[in-house]
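General statements about sequence and structure are easier to judge against a single worked case. In the encoding step, the backbone of a single protein was reduced to a row of integers, each denoting a local shape. The record that follows shows the chain in one-letter code together with its fold in token form.
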Amino acid sequence: MSWNDSSHRRDLEAIAGPIVGNLDALCTQLHRFSDHLFRWQRVQNLVSRETPGDLWERHILDSLQLLPLIGPHDGPLRVLDIGSGGGFPAIPLAIALKGTDYSMHLIESNTRKCAFLRATAREFDLPITVHTARIEAVSPQAVGRVDLFTSRALAPLPLLLRYIHRFWAPQSRAILHKGRENGEELKTADSDWVYDVLKHQSATDKDGVLLELSHLRPRTEPK
């Protein structure tokens, strides 16, 4: 499979240059991951039937734009990705974060996709634990402390907040991919939830945003 190394390196530099130490090494690893994904794609549907160029921009770069928002971390970073599907944003982020103190838990109910996620974690030596279950069936004790939640194209925001609240801790943040309906989703979520939110324009989708949430709590505490 042919890749445009110089163009992709420029893309990485624009998206996450100050955060990534060795852009050339990261580009090589991401190309390896892309080839790995397309091998699996021949036997199961991990992403829509796309060309390598589509995969690079619509999935890999879309995932890596979280890096500047994650920023450098001094202590260990514990990430929970829900509805992981074909591994976006979790796998590109995990590859980019190699060499730092982090670990990830991925929750996905599809057993074939979980097989791909586990094989990828082994192939790239990533500190990833995959839970094959529905989100509501995974206990917070099985995941442990969560510093950062990620999710992409899974569910409307009110339902996402209900999913992640079970795992939420005072230091937690969430960075969630959202599309053009993000304003309406925020209005609906405001009925049941209190949180601080920063809205960041997506670098890969003119209609998309990244919602950075903190201090999440129910508007009415359960009795």
The two ends are 57 Å apart (CA to CA). The chain has one domain: 5-218.
